[in-house]
């Protein structure tokens, strides 16, 4: 693996590429998918699977060593298995973020190619509430797939976006899951994107979550954060699993950021909140070298949250909706 050449003006080496395989989804989580729907790329503008592999190769030649597949819902992408097999040959650490509905179809393949790390979005342990949040009824299927993944020894993290008055009373129930299981819970602060009616008064902060956990369980072990970690991590003494807090709003973790995003229509975003995008797919299709574009984009990266000191709607409404960024 070569040393990263994708270095920003703060000296941060970018080694982690998150690729959105589609801007479509089989769920409609209200904090992610705008009620009126989101603009979706036409098929000719979406990266073909062969193009995803070829672009990934270029990133890998420039030092990327980890690729996360996301979306929209990555598992609804046709011939997803073919893509995974081809990406696994690049010698990178492959990871996945999914809503879990279709996971059972792919566990055998993941075992074969060594894809171990899977984040599953699960915002409630209550079937009715999950249906309210996602506007679909797949709770039983998702839970069965999570259990199967854990049984097979996959590293499963559960992504939970807490929203006041919706699922904020479930903090303890989620942490309880870590008592007898090696699962990790990732509580993600509610973030603003185009069309998601963000309002921080609906969000639940890192501080509030920690306070609820400390009051209930008494003590917490503070875990060491791996390099480039986006969460602060904890465990309840004696519990098998752990939990982490992704505090993008109240305590952003950008100092050590090593992330690059590629949207399903082949645009590079140097930050989750970047409003400026760099089209890599069009020049790639025209046969141009895209390494210079990648380097130029990373040189323009701001230190934190695309330069947003506070979350301002005039900025984040210019971004895409989360379902089309690739979270
Ligand atoms: N469909 C897959 C899933 O749900 O895991 C992958 C894509 S989804 C956009 C990736 C992650 O983004 C999910 O864990 C989801 O909870 C998170 N997410 C979406 N909108 C968010 C928001 N407004 N604030 C915080 N996290 C959000
Ligand atoms: Fe779909 Fe994931 Fe967004 Fe939910 S969070 S709407 S599952 S892309
Ligand atoms: Fe990196 Fe931007 Fe996320 Fe900060 S907000 S960690 S700079 S992608």
- Total individual domains: 1
Mean pLDDT: 96
CATH architecture descriptor name: Alpha-Beta Barrel
Largest sheet: 12 strands, mixed
**How would you describe the shape?**
globular
Explain what the structure shows.
The chain is of the alpha/beta class and 327 residues long. It has a single domain (16-325), classed as TIM Barrel, CATH 3.20.20.70. 28% of the residues lie in helices and 16% in strands. It is built from 11 helices and 12 strands. The chain has helices spanning 49-61, 80-88, 107-113, 127-134, 139-151, 171-176, 206-217, 281-285, 291-299, 313-316, 322-325, and strands at 16-20, 66-70, 93-98, 117-121, 155-161, 184-188, 221-222, 232-235, 242-246, 259-262, 267-269, 278-279. A 12-stranded mixed sheet has the order 7-8-9-6-5-4-3-2-1-10-11-12. The longest helix is centred in the first third of the chain and has 13 residues, at 49-61. The protein is globular. The relative contact order is 0.16. The model has no long low-confidence stretch (mean pLDDT 96). Bound molecules: S-adenosylmethionine and iron/sulfur cluster (SF4) (2 copies). Residues 252-254, 257, 259, 271-273, 304-305 line the site of one iron/sulfur cluster.
């Amino acid at each position: 693996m070569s040393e990263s050449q994708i270095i920003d003006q703060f000296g941060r080496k970018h080694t982690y590429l998150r690729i959105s395989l589609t801007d479509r989804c089989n769920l409609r989580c209200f904090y992610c998918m705008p009620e009126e729907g989101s603009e979706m790329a036409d098929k000719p503008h979406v990266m073909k699977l062969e193009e995803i592999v070829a672009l990934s190769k270029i990133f890998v030649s420039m030092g990327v060593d980890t690729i996360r597949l996301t979306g929209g819902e990555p598992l609804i992408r046709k011939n997803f298995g073919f893509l995974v097999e081809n990406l696994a040959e690049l010698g990178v650490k492959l990871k996945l973020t999914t809503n879990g509905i279709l996971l059972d179809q792919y566990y055998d393949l993941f075992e074969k190619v060594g894809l171990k790390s899977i984040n599953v979005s699960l915002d409630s342990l209550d079937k009715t509430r999950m249906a309210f949040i996602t506007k679909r009824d797949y709770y039983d299927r998702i839970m069965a797939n999570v259990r199967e993944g854990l049984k097979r020894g996959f590293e499963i993290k559960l992504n939970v976006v807490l929203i006041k008055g919706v699922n904020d009373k479930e903090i303890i129930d989620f942490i309880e899951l870590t008592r007898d299981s090696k699962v990790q819970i990732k509580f993600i602060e509610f973030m603003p994107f185009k069309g998601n009616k963000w309002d921080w008064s609906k969000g639940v902060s890192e501080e509030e979550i920690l306070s609820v956990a400390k009051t209930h369980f008494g003590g917490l072990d503070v875990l060491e954060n791996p390099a480039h970690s986006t969460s602060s991590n904890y465990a309840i003494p004696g519990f098998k699993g752990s939990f982490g807090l992704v505090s993008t709003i109240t305590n952003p973790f950008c100092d050590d950021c090593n992330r690059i995003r590629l949207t399903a229509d082949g645009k590079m975003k140097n930050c989750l909140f970047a409003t400026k995008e760099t089209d890599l797919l069009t020049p790639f299709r025209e046969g141009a070298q895209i390494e210079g574009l990648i380097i130029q984009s990373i040189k323009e990266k701001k230190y934190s949250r695309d330069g947003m000191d506070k979350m301002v709607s005039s900025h984040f409404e210019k971004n895409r909706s989360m379902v089309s960024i690739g979270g």
